[in-house]
Each structure stands twice: as C-alpha cells, then as structure tokens.
Amino acid sequence: MASKEQLHAIASRCSKFRNIYQEGLQSATLPSQVNCENCGHFTEDHKCELDLIDEILVNMDQT
Fold this sequence. Notes:
Structural class: mainly alpha
Helix content: 25-40%
Number of strands: 0
Radius of gyration: 11 Å
Shape: globular
Distance between the termini: 21 Å
Number of helices: 2
Mean pLDDT: 87
C-alpha cells in the first residue's frame, strides 16, 4: 500500500486522474485534492482500477 504522500505524488503524475470532487466543473483542481483517494478510478479497497499505482511508482523511482 502506498503512503499518503505517494498517493499525492502518483495522482499529480497520472494522466488518468479523475477528481471525483471536480467532475463537470470548469475551475482548476486544488493541489490538496490531487490524490489517488480523490480519483474516480480508486476503489473502496484502496486500489487503482486501472492498475497504475505500481507503474507510476516505478517510473518515479527512475527519475
């Protein structure tokens, strides 16, 4: 399981991030809301339904 800090970093780098609190609004997403836990692809059992968390973590480690 990724930490809260990692979930924020992952979401900020994820091209598939879909903010559940901002859908349909034209305003900018607040940085505090950019978190996997606020993404429409994040399931109740704390997993990404697109299976992107590990892939993004690995790519972050290589940079």
